Amino acid sequence: MESMDALISSEGDYVLAKPGSIYVVYLKNGGESSLDLGNDNVGIRTAMVQSKKGRCLTERKGQDHLRER
Fold first, then answer.
1. Which of 9, 16, 25, 69 has the most crowded Cβ, counting Cβ within 10 A?
2. Per-residue pLDDT tens for 28-37?
């Protein structure tokens, strides 16, 4: 895995990635952002994790995107 912060549209947020396999995004202030996966978005699964409590809040398969609720 390597830092790939250039893939995210918001400044000050972070991406750790193993291209084509795993992308971990940290939104420092929450909210929304876009992640440029190029052609790597087939079969994507997304999850939002509450880092302070270490629990999964939402999980989706497909092209869905997450919004903080």
1. 25
2. 888 888 888 8
